[in-house]
Amino acid sequence: MSNLNNRPIGVFDSGVGGLTVAHAIKQILPGENLVYFGDTAHLPYGDKSAESIIYYSRRITEFLLSKDAKMVLVACNSASASAFQVLLDEFGDRVFIMDVIEPVVDFIALKNYSRVGVIGTKRTITSGTYEKKFAEKSPATKIISLATPLFVPMIEEGFIFDDISNAIIRSYLSGSVLENIDALVLGCTHYPIIRNQITKLFNFEVEVVDSARVVALKLRSELEMRGLLRSPGKVDDKFFVSDYTPFFHKIARMFFESDIHLERADIWS
Questions:
Q1: Exposure check for the chain: N or C terminus, fewer CB within 10 A?
Q2: What pLDDT, on the 0 to 100 scale, is given for residue 42?
Q3: How far, in Å, CA of 23 to CA of 66, rounded?
Q4: Catalytic residue among 19, 21, 71, 76
Q5: pTM for this predicted structure
Q6: Looking at residues 198-226, what average pLDDT do you find?
Q7: 72 is catalytic
Q8: What phi, psi does 155 have (nearest 5°)?
Q9: Catalytic residue flag (residue 111)
Q10: Angle in degrees, CA 153, 156, 160, rounded to 5
Q11: Residues 167, 168, 174, 176, CA torsion sign
């Protein structure tokens, strides 16, 4: 086995959202090492310009490569929509790079649904990325997109499983826009944290897609195909943030069920 196989999987997001994907990866591939970067200094990405997101994504990718990442997962829908192609063009000859939008579109396309809702940040929704990809892979599927910009700051501030979050979720999702949908795509990696609340709002009648698990399964398939799976052994996951927040640490502990070492990395200076 080459040393490349034993290198970590690089994962980045604007904050805690990518932890949903990192957790799913660890459930499916417990023997893999992760190096995670949460850009908490710039969250949320959803209200940033495409140019800013591209800049952040480039610098973070460079950081992950400096940590010997064998692949980079852009675990942020806003960055996947705005920066993924740029990262492919710039780093694709050095490392395998994967986004979080394509696997979800592929998964939904196999279901032959008539109406699919997509919720996400302003940046993700206004990019039209989901509509474009569904038009290519499932043209008969009607896509209904809705920006839900308060969800990310709500989650990052710790408002989950409470009256405040329930009220905000209801205010966005209980209107007529998403009526009669067959499935709902959580077009932001933060949103699986409130998936149970969203599922309950729809009376468990709509498939609320667990996008984190879908992405993790696709990642496993890609690593298998490329011969990059790591053999079982001692695991050493590393977590970096651009600005320390107590809630990030709390959520990370919730997902990984152990105390983690969280390191601040100033990659902007």
A1: C
A2: 93
A3: 23
A4: 76
A5: 0.93
A6: 96
A7: no
A8: -70, -45
A9: no
A10: 95
A11: positive
Instruction: Select from 185, 191, 145, 188 the least CA-distant residue to 168.
Output: 191
| Rounded Cα gap, residues 243 and 114, in angstroms | 42
- Say what angle helices 18-28 and 211-225 make with each other, to 10 degrees: 50
Element (H, E) at 88: helix 84-91
State how far the Cα of 143 lies from the Cα of 159, in Å rounded to an integer: 29
**For residue 132, what are its two tokens?**
């474009």
Catalytic hit among 34, 35, 147, 188: 188
Tokens of 246: 């107590």
Asked if residues 185 and 209 have their Cβ atoms less than 8 Å apart, the reply is yes
- The residue with tokens 């990030």 is 248
CA angle 200, 204, 209 (to 5 degrees): 95
* Domains assigned to the chain: 3-99+213-264 (3.40.50.1860), 102-211 (3.40.50.1860)
Whether residue 257 is predicted with pLDDT greater than 80 in this model: the reply is no
Burial 228-247 (b: 16+ CB within 10 A, else e): bebeeeeeebbbbbbeebeb
Side-chain-facing half-sphere of 227: CA atoms under 13 Å:
4
pLDDT tens track for 112-158: 899 999 999 999 999 999 999 999 999 999 999 999 999 999 998 88
pLDDT at 1: 45
